[in-house]
Amino acid sequence: MAATNGSATTNGGASSHRRYLYLAGIGVTHSIGYAMHNHIIQSLGLPFEFKNVECPSIEDLMALFRAPSFAGGVVTMPYKQAVMRHLDGLDDLALTLGACNNVYLTADGKLRGTNTDWRGIKGCLLNASPEGRGKPAVIIGAGGASRAAVYALSTELGCKTIYMINRDEAEVAALLADAQAYADNGQPGPHLIHIKSVAQTSGLPKPYYIVGTVPDFEPSTPQELEARAILESLLSTRDGEEKGVLLDMCFKPRNTRILKLGKRHGWRTVEGTGVIGHQVEEQWRLWAGQEASGNVPVEEAWEVLRKKAEESTAINF
Q: Are 48 and 78 in contact (CB under 8 A)?
């Protein structure tokens, strides 16, 4: 897939037949971002509608995105990597990260992919505390969302040492290979360390930022139980040691098992719904152009998102 520049559509997304924006993936019916986006659409007076659409396969997702009515889309699990080879172009950011969560139309109607997840991660972490800049960090998981976490932490927040917690060694190996794209002009990329056992955490400098990128689940296999024990070890601090910020990108439920664990250890915790809000301005620049994005009612959008998060029975349990 060739790299293309990051220029957003100037008119393709607003033409009369380009009507629908989508969140597409598996398990998306609970997601709350559609309310925020539809509020923005109404505020801007655009002829769009934002929908959550369940896509059992990547072919289903691409059929949706190739339809004449497509105006833009958010890609979620499990297609953030798989979608890349099906698009007409990718910007340099998507190629560097190795994951795409946003698809938009170019001026000539081509499908181009980029990544805005990292903005959500960075925004959530800094909003909680800026004190983690340059300190060791942790990422839980090694799938598509973890790529945005690596970028946000290493490139944007200067966290060059990142501990990886993941039960699948092959996934981590693939992430380590992708991270080589960050090396520049002879300078090394981030130092990713796969933590495979609790014993390995002994003596490690404590992390400040922790980002969860996996669905909420109760660990049951030996590998899952060990991964959860590793996280608890990294969360544990002695008297006087600094406690940091734990963000879980998963928000079904809002109060995930990982967040509960962080709270028990006295960490500041951030639910994943905020990741949606911190991407909104860049998403609308890509979908509707610079002028429209400048008129996005950001504070109102956040209010709608927070209200929906509080009211949704699909994520409050």
A: no
